[in-house]
Amino acid sequence: MATAMHATTLSSSPSSSSSSSSPSMVMKSPKFALAQVHDDVCLVQVCSSLAHESCHSALSAVEAQIYAHEFITIFRYSHPAILHPSDIRILEWLDEQSVLNEADKGTVFLARDVMERLRRLTDRRWSIGLVTRPRASYSRGGRWIPS
Question: Is residue 91 part of a domain?
Fold first, then answer.
């Protein structure tokens, strides 16, 4: 795909409320979503409380684990991220039936209909000029020369 594809994941195990847990880990179960992170449309997994809170604080950081798009419907774990709320915009929450998370392998598979919606989101961004395409020109020998 033309734009960077990512996904974010947190542990899929339920959070315990023990005193040793950090405040950031005592949260509702994480959910996958298609989101805009900075200038990229990504697959992210964040705390589902974001979906239920009508007014998420503009000062609250959003914790996420990032996955990179690997092949067709496959995403692989890349790195964790802590984002300012202005740096992330949830475009669509995904159903559990649309996501297969193999947490032990760091791999996430998406349903084909989700991939089609993701493709449309990224294609629309290209077509309306939100992301600039790199210009290319060809020399007389037919070789591609980036401009």
Answer: yes
60 is in which domain, residue-wise? 6-146
Residue 107 lies in a domain: yes
Domain count, the chain: 1
Per-residue confidence of the chain (147 residues) as pLDDT tens digits? 444 444 443 433 333 334 343 334 444 578 898 888 888 878 888 875 665 554 456 678 888 887 888 999 999 988 888 988 889 888 889 999 999 999 999 999 999 999 998 888 888 665 555 544 444 444 455 555 554
**Cα radius of gyration (the chain):** 18
**The tokens 């200038």 sit on which residue?**
39
The answer to whether residue 1 sits within a structural domain is no
135 assigned to some structural domain: yes
Q: Is this structure's pTM higher than 0.90?
A: no
